[in-house]
User: Which sequence fits this backbone?
């Protein structure tokens, strides 16, 4: 395991914002289109956080205002495509996985 930890050490991000399941976060993502790159924001509620090390991921559920459609995306925490994670609102939840929000009308 020590060899794997040494390889993973170079890929860890140092400036990760502390967030938990239930928090509303705003992500700044790098999007590459052809030879151009731009920054796109994605805001939603964190419904899952799992894994450890460089394989740690979290899922964000976004619901558009006035629309019944929801979008769920899973992101690696240490991904180079995520430039910034900002906590918009911090909440306290009693569950570690908020899968019931997928089917609710108001997420």
Assistant:
């Amino acid at each position: 395991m020590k060899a794997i930890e040494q390889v993973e050490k170079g890929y860890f991000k140092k400036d990760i914002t502390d967030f938990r399941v239930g928090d509303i976060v705003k992500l700044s993502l790098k999007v590459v289109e052809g030879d151009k790159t731009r920054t796109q924001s994605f805001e939603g509620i964190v419904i899952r956080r799992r894994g450890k090390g460089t394989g740690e991921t979290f899922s964000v559920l976004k619901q558009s205002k006035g629309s019944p459609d929801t979008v769920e995306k899973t992101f690696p925490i240490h991904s180079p495509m995520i430039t910034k994670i900002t906590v918009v609102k911090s909440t306290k939840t009693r569950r570690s996985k908020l899968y019931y929000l997928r089917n609710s009308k108001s997420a």
In short: Residues 2-90 form a domain with the SH3 type barrels. fold (CATH 2.30.30.790).
